[in-house]
């Protein structure tokens, strides 16, 4: 294997992850709407049907509840399914299966049945797909005990989180932000795997902590860059795992910076950002030297028109402004 | 397993015993519910015994079963022992699910019995998954999926029927049509009240059978399972049956008449099989008394087992929310 | 009264289907009970003879209450009709008293200070009162930057790293935000020093007056006459201070420095000022500064002492607007009344916040300090 870093898109990293997983384990297969002949709504699975065959790349009817439920049953009965739900908005059609069966059966059966299932779905806004294709619902799923919720933001995570998810005996949901699919970057061939338990500090800093995940990571890093030019050094935490939360990494950072901005493309009310903020209140209240601030999506259905869509979402400017207000308060 | 039913004395007694076990077990459950030993929702199978008992005759240990929330009969007929079943209802850790599931959520890994599903219709996709796994891993197993006629109202019914037929999954759909989804009569919930006719819309074979006759159910189930094993296509069995008791314990039954209940009681599968066997000479003097005594003894032992049960320590409350490994 | 559902608490007996003395069989319907879900027939689970009916039709009784007694055919103690738990007494039918309206909620007085959790914890650890602290954090909250970084030595030892960070924060902010202007002037200290020598004659070393006290004394009195340079830049405006509380920069042995305030320094005699300075230096180095001393200063004065450089261009301590610095006292040729004579002089520098004042005003202050040093008051 070449040791030179390869340039690859996030989409290709997702595809390679699926391909490698299916080749590595006869129990693994992919099913979902338009994953085969069409090549995936976001072209993630393009070419896989031709290479891997219909048994392993299964086009399903538009039946989210049936094929997610079938994935649960198949996982219980010994397979390692990867189920693709086209966007997280459609996942609500399978919410009953995810919550009442996948997340519940292990505990309700007294530990008799595990559900080693992976569900991938696209999330987020930014492509003018309007309200029924643009929402960020990962925070809802992070509410549910029994699930592990992943938000790969980097090419490395897109490439390697899937294998770790398939090795987990529990249902794992992977949320891929649609704005990341075209992102290109280097994949270090020396890295052969990643954990699915910890958050990562993507940029160290000592003035303020910026907690984010998924599609907001790069907006947050842009904001951190702008802040650095003003002399404010922000520490950017990529949560990566939305459930269970790696609170230790957050609290250690808060203890250093004492100021926190949480960036979440989900809506503010009852959100993942609210959960992170409350964990900080519970575990690091006395470390805080300023109120916690949040930058979330505006509380509207994400609109179609580009200017309105962008106005509804967290942006580097709004993130930097929130951080500035904490690190350098107006006298 | 042969499709032919040899209804000899031994087999007749077996069917009779299985139905009696369910009937007496649940009679005791009703009593213990009113005495507050069993709590939560309790849905009794009283009257529908022929369905579970008949279908289970067609299944082997390699097959899988997905049940409903009215599943005590399905669980007992599948072979789940009575003691751990009763202990489950008592909420004891000696219960089949350590007391986590209760009446509506009976699971047994060893017997491939996956619920105990209390979301109507949600068991159907699970059954598809079992069948898909069996198919992909080269097992000849069939998954029997029980559901009430109310599940046919749900969108998941359509999704699952379509997918099962499309992918030729080895599923035996067992619709227990007892005419009421809770208190809503079939006629005001379904445009097509002959549920098995819906199967044709998916190019799936199906039939309706007298669900008050365990022999008729068994014959139909054996025929269906043999076909499923042979060509891999799913099959639909509508078992027309009736529950004699209320939907749950707290049900004034405002939605049906006493006359209707009495008319169905006249078709009670237990006396019906008993009388047939007597006429056919398969039931000898003292057989019924012996069966009743043995079943009563088994029920008493199950209650004693449950009474002697222990409570799972509260420290284990969060155990199995996530699993450390996949149980083999 | 049997329990028919998890949410059933009581039921009303509608009618008895059996009479006392009547034989009943398991499965018989013996009564009808009205519940919130309608009338439900009550089944009996024993064979036997009904002895007596305890509850009359129309009565509403809680779940578990005794309804009737049964003589079981097989003998043994007569079980209650319901095998439920012992009956709770029927509830009193008296109407529930109307609770009085809740008293109006007294609003707590508005807090004078917003204090961040971290600052509150540190202040408590330091034993510092929060009263009198000025907040520079978000929404004016007192934050860590408003507190001394290190606990006093007497408690937990000096924290040079924390001290350095505090200095870095304050000085960084000053240089980022404050447009400094600088004025400097070399002042002949000879008359003042001669006076000090007279005053110190016969005093033991610990009681002697130091040149720094003289400089501070002059500076404080001059500042009192120049209120435009004594105060704070806050909310984009200058706010004059109430008094002249001079922050006296004290270098610490472990590195770093603090500038605790001498309150109303302009009103202190030279001797009193000297006492205050000695006390302050001792407490700054040994621990025991009060929180208010660390935050009360309205202007800062620094003196480099006899081992320092000849002049200093000091950095203003925000939110103050002025700092004065004295260089080392040096002997230089000086023109006095047309003749070159050796004199002991020092360079006095003023750094001013140009947002709050202009160089002209600063120049007036320097001139006034010089004048006071030239004409030291006689005892």
TrEMBL record, chain A:
Pfam families: Transket_pyr (PF02779), Transketolase_C (PF02780). The keyword Transmembrane does not apply. It comes from the Bacteria. One of its GO terms (molecular function) is oxidoreductase activity. InterPro entries: THDP-binding, Transketo_C/PFOR_II, Transketolase-like_Pyr-bd, Transketolase_C. Residues 8-183 form the Transketolase-like pyrimidine-binding domain. Its cofactor is thiamine diphosphate. Keywords: Oxidoreductase, Thiamine pyrophosphate. NCBIfam families: PRK09212.1. This is Alpha-ketoacid dehydrogenase subunit beta. It comes from Falsiroseomonas bella.
TrEMBL record, chain B:
Pfam families: E1_dh. One of its GO terms (biological process) is pyruvate decarboxylation to acetyl-CoA. Its EC number is 1.2.4.1. Transmembrane segments: none annotated. It catalyses: N(6)-[(R)-lipoyl]-L-lysyl-[protein] + pyruvate + H(+) = N(6)-[(R)-S(8)-acetyldihydrolipoyl]-L-lysyl-[protein] + CO2. One of its GO terms (molecular function) is pyruvate dehydrogenase (acetyl-transferring) activity. Heterodimer of an alpha and a beta chain. The pyruvate dehydrogenase complex catalyzes the overall conversion of pyruvate to acetyl-CoA and CO(2). It contains multiple copies of three enzymatic components: pyruvate dehydrogenase (E1), dihydrolipoamide acetyltransferase (E2) and lipoamide dehydrogenase (E3). This is Pyruvate dehydrogenase E1 component subunit alpha. The lineage of its organism: Bacteria, Pseudomonadati, Pseudomonadota, Alphaproteobacteria, Acetobacterales.
């Amino acid at each position: 294997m070449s040791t030179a870093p390869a340039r690859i898109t996030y989409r290709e990293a997702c595809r390679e992850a699926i391909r490698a997983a299916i080749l590595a384990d006869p129990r693994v297969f992919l099913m979902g709407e338009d994953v085969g002949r069409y090549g995936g709504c976001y072209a993630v699975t393009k070419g896989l049907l031709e290479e891997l065959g219909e048994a392993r790349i299964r086009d399903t009817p538009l039946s989210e509840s049936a094929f997610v439920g079938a994935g649960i049953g198949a996982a219980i009965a010994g397979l390692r399914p990867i189920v693709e739900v086209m966007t997280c908005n459609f996942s609500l059609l399978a919410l009953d299966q995810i919550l009442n069966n996948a997340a519940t059966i292990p505990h309700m059966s007294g530990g008799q049945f595990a559900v080693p299932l992976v569900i991938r779905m696209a999330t987020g806004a930014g492509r003018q797909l309007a309200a029924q294709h643009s929402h960020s619902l990962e925070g809802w799923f992070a509410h549910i005990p029994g699930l592990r919720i992943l938000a790969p933001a980097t090419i490395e995570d897109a490439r390697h989180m899937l294998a770790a998810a398939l090795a987990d005996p529990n249902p794992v949901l992977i949320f891929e932000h649609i704005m990341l699919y075209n992102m290109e970057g280097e994949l270090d061939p020396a890295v052969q795997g990643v954990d699915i338990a910890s958050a990562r500090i993507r940029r160290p800093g000592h003035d303020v902590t910026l907690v984010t995940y998924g599609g907001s990571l790069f907006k947050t890093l842009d904001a951190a860059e702008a802040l650095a030019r003003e002399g404010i050094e922000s520490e950017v935490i990529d949560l990566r795992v939305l459930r269970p939360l790696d609170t230790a990494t957050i609290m250690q950072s808060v203890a250093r910076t004492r100021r926190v901005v949480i960036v979440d493309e989900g809506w503010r009310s009852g959100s993942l950002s609210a959960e992170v903020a409350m964990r900080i209140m519970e575990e690091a209240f006395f470390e805080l030297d300023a109120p916690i601030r949040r930058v979330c999506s505006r509380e509207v259905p994400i609109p179609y028109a580009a200017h309105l869509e962008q106005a509804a979402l967290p942006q580097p400017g709004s993130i930097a402004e929130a951080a500035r207000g904490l690190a350098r308060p107006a006298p | 397993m042969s499709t032919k039913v040899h209804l000899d004395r031994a087999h007749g007694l077996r069917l009779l015993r299985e139905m009696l076990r369910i009937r007496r077990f649940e009679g005791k459950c009703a009593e213990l519910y009113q005495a507050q030993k069993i709590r939560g929702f309790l849905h009794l199978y009283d009257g529908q015994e022929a369905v579970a008992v008949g279908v289970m005759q067609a299944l082997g240990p390699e097959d899988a079963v997905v049940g409903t929330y009215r599943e005590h009969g399905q669980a007992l007929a599948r072979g789940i022992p009575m003691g751990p079943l009763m202990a489950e209802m008592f909420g004891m850790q000696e219960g089949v699910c350590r007391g986590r599931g209760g009446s509506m959520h009976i699971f047994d890994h060893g017997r491939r019995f996956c619920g105990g599903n209390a979301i109507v219709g949600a068991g159907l996709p699970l059954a598809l998954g079992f069948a898909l796994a069996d198919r992909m891993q080269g097992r000849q197993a069939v998954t029997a999926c029980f559901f009430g006629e109310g599940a046919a109202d749900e969108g998941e019914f359509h999704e699952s029927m379509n997918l099962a037929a499309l992918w030729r999954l080895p599923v035996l759909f067992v619709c227990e049509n007892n005419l009421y989804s809770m208190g809503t009569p079939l006629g005001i919930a379904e445009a097509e009240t002959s549920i098995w006719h819906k199967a044709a819309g998916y190019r799936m074979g199906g039939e309706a059978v007298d669900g008050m006759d365990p022999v008729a159910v068994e014959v139909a189930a054996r025929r269906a399972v043999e076909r499923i094993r042979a060509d891999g296509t799913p099959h639909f069995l509508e078992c027309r049956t009736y529950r004699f008791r209320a939907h749950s314990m707290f049900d004034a039954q405002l939605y049906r008449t006493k006359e209707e209940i009495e008319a169905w009681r006249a078709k009670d599968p237990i006396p019906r099989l008993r009388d047939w066997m007597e006429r056919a000479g398969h039931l000898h003097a003292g057989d019924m008394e012996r069966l009743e005594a043995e079943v009563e003894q088994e029920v008493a032992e199950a209650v004693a087992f449950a009474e002697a049960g222990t409570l799972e320590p509260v420290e284990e409350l969060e155990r199995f929310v996530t699993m450390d490994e996949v149980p083999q | 009264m049997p329990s028919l559902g998890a949410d059933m608490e009581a039921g009303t007996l509608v009618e008895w289907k059996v009479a006392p003395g009547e034989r009943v069989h398991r499965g018989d319907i013996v009564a009808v009970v009205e519940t919130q879900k309608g009338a439900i027939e009550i089944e009996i689970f024993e064979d036997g003879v009904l002895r007596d009916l305890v509850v009359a039709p129309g009565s509403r009784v809680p779940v578990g209450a005794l309804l009737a007694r049964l003589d079981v055919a097989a003998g043994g103690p007569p079980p209650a009709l319901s095998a439920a738990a012992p009956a709770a007494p029927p509830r009193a039918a008296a109407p529930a008293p109307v609770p009085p309206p809740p008293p109006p909620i007294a609003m707590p007085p508005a807090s004078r200070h917003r204090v961040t959790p971290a600052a509150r914890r540190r202040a408590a650890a330091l034993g510092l009162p929060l009263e009198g602290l000025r907040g520079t954090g978000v929404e004016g909250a007192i934050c860590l930057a408003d507190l001394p970084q290190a606990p006093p030595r007497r408690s937990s030892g000096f924290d040079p790293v924390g001290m350095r960070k505090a200095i870095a924060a304050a000085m960084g902010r000053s240089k980022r935000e404050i447009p400094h202007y600088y004025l400097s002037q070399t002042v002949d200290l000879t008359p003042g020093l001669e006076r000090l020598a007279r005053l110190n004659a016969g005093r033991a070393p610990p009681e002697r007056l130091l040149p720094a006290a003289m400089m501070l004394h002059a500076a404080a009195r001059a500042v009192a006459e120049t209120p435009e340079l004594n105060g704070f830049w806050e909310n984009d405006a200058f706010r004059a201070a109430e008094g002249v509380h001079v922050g006296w920069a004290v270098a610490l042995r472990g590195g770093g420095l603090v500038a605790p305030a001498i309150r109303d320094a302009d009103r202190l005699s030279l001797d009193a000022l000297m006492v205050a300075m000695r006390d302050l230096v001792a407490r700054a180095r040994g621990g025991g500064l009060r929180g208010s001393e660390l935050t009360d200063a309205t202007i800062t004065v620094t003196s480099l002492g006899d081992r320092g450089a000849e002049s200093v261009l000091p950095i203003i301590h925000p939110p103050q607007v002025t700092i004065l610095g004295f260089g080392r006292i040096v002997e230089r040729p000086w023109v006095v009344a047309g003749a070159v004579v050796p004199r002991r002089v020092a360079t006095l520098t003023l750094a001013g916040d140009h947002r709050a004042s202009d160089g002209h005003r600063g120049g007036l202050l320097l001139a006034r300090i010089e004048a006071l040093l030239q004409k030291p008051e006689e005892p």
